[in-house]
Amino acid sequence: MKKQSEKAAALKYSRGKDSTPRLVAKGRGKVAEKIIEIAKAHGIPVKEDKELVDLLSALDLYREIPPDLYKAVAEILAFVYSLKNRKAGLQQA
Fold first, then answer.
1. How far apart are CA 37 and CA 75, in angstroms?
2. What pLDDT is stored for residue 14 in this prediction?
3. Given this model, what pLDDT does residue 1 score?
4. 3-state per-residue secondary structure call for the chain
């Protein structure tokens, strides 16, 4: 996400443990900046999607995402997995 972002949201999904991703953090302004900073510091991929962040920000924390957001969140997870696979491929080379 760009520095000028007003909002941020963080999802967590543990394959085999969770049935769907959960919203584990959300915030605006300084809180959003901190969410992004922590993610980057821990090597967690960050993707900008204003519309999805707006939708996620309306949800309660630690709840599973609702079915109407499955497709959008699946696209984010596919992005994350592709980055991880690319990184793993580079480390093996």
1. 22
2. 87
3. 44
4. CCCCCCEEEEEECCCCCCCCCEEEEEEECHHHHHHHHHHHHCCCCCCCCHHHHHHHHCCCCCCECCHHHHHHHHHHHHHHHHHHHHHHHHHHC
What gap in Å lies between CA 33 and CA 31, rounded to an integer? 5
Domain assignments of the chain as residue spans, ordered by start: 7-92
Q: Please provide the CATH number assigned to the domain covering 7-92.
A: 3.40.1690.10
Averaged pLDDT, groups of 10, the chain, 93 residues long? 72 90 96 96 92 95 95 90 76 58
